């Protein structure tokens, strides 16, 4: 009995002491800082986070939490019912409620793993990590993407700039240039410092509500080396051809003189001059028109293709040659140095490279699109205007989609099909054919078909 009384008295004393002690730190942190309160309230109203995220505002944000914040920000700008359809790519621990956010952020390219199939979902996020995620996010939502290179000189103003990891340097200094992130404690940028929940919400709030930031990003377009002034269809053609011949990732077209750039013209010109099995994104953005090329082969392969093409031209094109002689030399080089990828054609396993100039000029193997792409590149380097034609063709052994070229020689246009002129083997010897060299529309129409409204007439 006495023992019970003692325990009760001790419990009451402890309870009294507890009521007199100051509240724990996390209780004070359950309210956002005054400078962050408007952003936090806006994020709540627009459902940019959920659950326990709206508490402990000064707590460092974790990688799984920031994945949720960016995915919800993306959905705010680009509403979609898209369902995450891939398996969870990481093997380490995560909080179940964040699983789909991590998956989608990973699919969008906003976040990436550490390697060894780990993500570090519970790890805190540093300022440099968030900078990289922010730039990736901007690349997703800014039409045409952004160019965030060329701002390294901003690092000269910080005493700790050498602490920025190489993979984060461009991103962090670009965001500093835009005013999205700021230095700390005078002359420090603090790349390894952690980001709190409320700091992350303030940054996202600024991005989604401040038009001047987006305008600032767009203004960089006007200083781009890939900005072309266009006043006609031919100017648009020159810009697209120049970009593809140089392997540029994106270009911007600024229309003048009342000229209106048409989407259908851009698409058709791209299809007539693409040599890399690419796709494009295009459309008006702010005061310019952007075109982004998504090459079907890697950047290094594009560079090798261009370099090889220039080397070939230097070998086979001689001073004093007429355009006809140049065209003939290029045609003969292609058909005698290339084998049709027949085995993969039969197996329906044609690799991407065989559809490109890379497959023909580097590997010596290709299908019709590759032959036409290689012809196009070499002819353009030789100063001969031409386009790639896509249509259909048929003979005794084949009927289906096909590609060839239309070239301009002596002011007139002609059809050239290097694929169907590929050497015929008779008695072990290859016989060079010119059966499909410089044909008229009437001659070509015997076994080829194409939309004649899209291409120059060959008469």
Automatic annotation (TrEMBL):
Keywords on record: Repeat
InterPro entries in the record: CAP/Cytokinesis_protein, Papain-like_cys_pep_sf, SLH_dom, Transglutaminase-like
Residue ranges occupied by any SLH domain in the UniProt entry: 85-148, 155-218
Keyword Repeat: yes
GO cellular component: cytoplasm
Record's signal peptide: none
Keyword Translocase: no
Annotated protein name in UniProt: S-layer homology domain-containing protein
UniProt-listed SMART domains: TGc
